[in-house]
Amino acid sequence: MKRNMISGFLVIAILFSLLLMNVYASEPDWSKIPETNIVLFQPGQTSWEFLTSDSHPGSIAVNEAKASCSDCHRGKEADLAIKSMTHREPTPIIGKEPLKVLSVKAAHDDTYAYFWFRWTSREPSIIRKYQVFDGKEWKGVGGVPRPENVKKGVPAQYEDRLNIMLDDTKLQSFTRNGCFITCHNDLRYMPNEAKKDDVKTHAYLGDKGIKKSDIRKYIPESRTKIDKTGGWSNVRPKEELENMKKEGLFAELLQWRANRTNPIGILDDGYVLEYRLFDSDGKFMEDNYDKDKKQPKYMFDASKTGMKSFPYDQVKNQKYYYISKDIAVPFDPNVEWKKGDAIPDPIIFTPKDNTSTSHGEWKDGSWTVVIKRKLNHGNPLEDKILKPGNIYSVGLALHDDNTTHRFHYVSLPMTIGFDNPKLDINIVKAR
Asked: Which of 74, 258, 289, 295 is most open to solvent, judged by the fewest CB atoms within 10 Å of its CB?
């Protein structure tokens, strides 16, 4: 029996090693791909409304579309970070680096584009939200680190993230101003954050529409009017938004997440128009909490993980710090749950469209992340079609060290394309 068990483990180990070899073998030889270093900076509460206001010395150039952010600020990212942290960040994180250097390599074959990223990070932030039993009921712990709580000394607990925002230059405001066009004063944790009740009762965004309760990214073209506080409620009619999608007036958003995509090798593939949205076949997670029953929806499959839950105070020592549908079973309330038992939330799964993937590894003080993105998803209403010979606009962002929302690092708008060394990021042919 013991010999059979050992043989079984060896077979599993060999199969897993072969799987990893197959994944990495499908990638370019990164040692032969040129590397570009890009400086990212903390933007604080810098928003589209600030860029277009009299408070911004370059507002005339922005409003009259005469120059891009890069035209004025390329090479001066340190100055931008200092100004943002001094004047446009009410709750700065003490000790957080103002700048972050992101190393990038890019390659392609006839079907895929491959992106390699590396940045320094003092530790891997892979822990996020959990449902924890307090002896009487299940309560959500962790998740979004609100600025006021961080300021009070409540330990932050969130995942590291890498974001790519991409456009085919149809959205000219993005070409000039990058991801700043999607950041507004009325988003979450911004100066004029929209109230939850107002959002939930909004005809389009709320309970009778796309069922949102807060405001996330949107492009200014999706609104009929924007003032100094933002324009969240002034959404264009649905027919106009659909026409904008047909015209390609949206930005694609790819996200690698250390907690919610990395464990199963998937990629968060979405886009930004009137809101930050999943692709139609891109949903990969759902809440692991039943609000009616006031308990988790799923628990670990003990036959696969050796446990139904784990002690929350041991969360950082867990192999399964996440839960996915392939290692889960429906929650059983009849189990003798103990105080401190924890189950991850949300539950993640492979999306219907899994043609793009990602994987990351933290080692020796750095994250290395590789994203594999299909050149043509066949869905131009939600994804940009990448074609050799074309030039695209791109913005990059990092959430590092247990942060989210505005507490990230961003790039200035850049150019990206195929086999063109004159561009900021050159996607070279893989040999």
From this structure: 74
Please state the pTM of the whole predicted model.
0.91
pLDDT tens, position by position, 343-360:
999 999 999 988 899 999
* Nearest-angstrom CA–CA distance, 140 and 309: 14
Domain end call among 349, 376, 398: 349
CATH of the domain at 367: 2.60.40.1190
β-partners of residue 428 are: 107
Same domain as 341, residue 226: no
What pLDDT band is residue 156 in, cutting at 50, 70 and 90? confident
Q: In terms of DSSP bridges, do strands 112-120 and 347-348 run parallel, antiparallel, or are they unpaired?
A: unpaired
238 with 224: CB under 8 angstroms?
no
Do 221 and 271 reside in the same domain of the chain? Answer: yes
Tokens describing residue 296:
């988790």
Q: Among residues 324, 422, 404, which one has the least CA distance to residue 163? A: 404
Both 139 and 264 in one domain: the answer is no
E-strand stretches of 84-137: 99-108, 112-120, 129-133
Name the residue among 230, 148, 185 with its Cα closest to residue 45. Answer: 185
Domain that holds residue 302: 127-144+285-349
CB 99 within 8 A of CB 28: no
* Residue matched to tokens 């929209």: 194
Q: From residue 196, give the alpha-carbon distance in Å to each of 205, 215, 331, 400.
A: 11, 9, 30, 27
> What's 227's DSSP letter?
B
DSSP code of residue 384: P
Distance CA 157, CA 142 (A): 6
Residues 358-388: b if buried by 16+ CB within 10 A, e if exposed:
bbbebeeeebbbbbbbbbebeeeebbbebee
